[in-house]
Amino acid sequence: MAYFDSIVTAQFQLTDDIFVLTVDRKGAPAAAGQFFMLKCWDKELTLMRPISIFKVDEETLHFMYRVVGQGTRRLSELKAGDRVSLLGSLGTGYPVSEMHGRVAIVGGGLGIPPLCQTAKELTAAGVEVDAYIGYRDRLFALEEFEPYCHAIFVSTEDGSEGYRGFITDLLKPEQYDAVFTCGPEVMMRKVAAMAHEKGTPCWCSMEHRMACGIGACLGCSIRTTEGMKRVCKDGPVFPAEQLFSA
What we know:
Number of strands: 16
Number of helices: 5
Mean pLDDT: 92
Strand order of the largest sheet: 4-3-7-1-2-6-5
Low-confidence stretches: none
Helix content: 10-25%
């Protein structure tokens, strides 16, 4: 973990409110499921914003995020050549090194981007990856998964693309050695229950408001079966059985 200044190399707008920010990596370590704290201001906004890792290249870091407030709005205004400050990498990511055989990754909404780097690292480790990706309506980032996945299953709530309904309707956890999921809590709770029923290990990436990103302020503490834990430090990835009762 380190605090460092970097330079924006690209900014791309995917939808009305979803952007991809690319910055110089500066040698920072980064792994599937981790995140960075970002800011591009000095005084008027004091807290950095936590953004999950979308993709990692040798020289660059990519962050896909949705504009939801003043901080992310400021990030969305960055252009190539602008300065941005980062803290990271942070958090406990997915246990990629422990995996073998076949793994399903299940994502929904802005839980989709962190699973792209996850699929990349799993594939590099010799694991066969199937992606289950659920959207409300408009698709985004789907092509980024294609180089790393054996099969990709898509659902939309309005039926405009792929299966009409919820992505959990398509998942069969018993076909996999593990399931990784990231997205709305209601979706992850369903995935965790399905995996538990079939005896398939499952890991979930939690989202929570974060102030410091390093576990000092305790602002992102959540209740687990092992007591109170900090999403930023102990997570954001947790074994499903720690989060959701069977």
